[in-house]
Design brief:
alpha/beta
Length: about 240
């Protein structure tokens, strides 16, 4: 009887250890189409959702993806409520992800019907250019001396200023601007910010495994196929391969 009880206790310990090992990785994100769509407080579809779900499936690691305001997501990673945010600036991370599947391309946008059809720096000499307060812009954009950046509180206000004739030019997220019917995106894109999941330092080993697995998804064409589900834009057009 003692042996039987001992074996039962040992088995229970093993089961408990297994359950702890399989605790889901908790990610946090916001709605950013077509990368993340939110429903009932969860990120439940989109390019980032599908790429990460497939990567964690291959790693045999369960994952949950909650939706929250961006500042709460970032704070939650610091406090341990979340293991990572879903898409954040790669350049700000240590260590950095090498295998990038998403980017935030910024272009100059005009009102539909504008005679201006392509981007040239000469267009914006001395011009007021709209932007969204708090968004990430690269040094190339922020440090350009020959325009005056005028902040808006959010994208709705930004595009209202453009389509209402109060701004001739605005800096626009190509993905978001693509959903606006009265806005035209000028090519070429001015600059882009590469994005990846941003893990806390305590999850560095998991982040490295995920980075390698995402590399496999890129190489076997899975990421390109996921892009095709959500957008007509090609993966490598939006996220050029890094120079080797």
């Amino acid at each position: 009887m003692r042996a039987s009880l001992g074996m039962t206790a040992a088995g229970a310990c093993l089961l408990a250890a297994g359950a702890a090992a399989q605790a889901p990785v908790k990610l946090c994100g916001v709605e950013w189409q077509p990368f993340s769509y939110v429903k009932n407080g969860k990120v439940d579809s989109g390019i980032s959702h599908d790429v990460l779900q497939e990567a964690f499936r291959r790693m045999k690691v369960p994952v949950t993806m909650e939706a929250a305001p961006w500042e709460r997501c970032l704070r939650g990673v610091k406090t341990g409520d979340y293991d990572a945010v879903i898409d954040n600036e790669v350049a700000a991370q240590t260590p950095r992800f090498k295998n990038v599947y998403s980017s935030y391309p910024v272009a100059l946008c005009v009102k539909r019907g504008s005679p201006v059809k392509s981007f040239d720096w000469k267009l914006v000499q001395g011009q007021a250019v709209g932007m969204v307060r708090g968004y990430t812009y690269t040094p190339k954009i922020l440090n350009y001396p020959n325009w005056k950046l005028e902040p808006s509180n959010d994208e709705d206000q930004l595009y209202a200023m453009l389509t209402g004739g109060h701004r001739r030019f605005v800096l626009c997220d190509v993905w978001g601007a693509s959903l606006r019917p009265n806005v035209e995106i000028l090519q070429p894109v001015i600059d882009r910010t590469d994005l990846s999941p941003n893990f806390s330092a305590r999850q560095a080993a998991l982040a490295a495994r995920l980075d390698a697995t995402i590399g496999d998804l890129i190489r076997d064409g899975s990421v390109e196929r996921i892009y095709a589900k959500y957008t007509q834009r090609k993966f490598r057009d939006m996220v050029p391969a890094a120079d080797k």
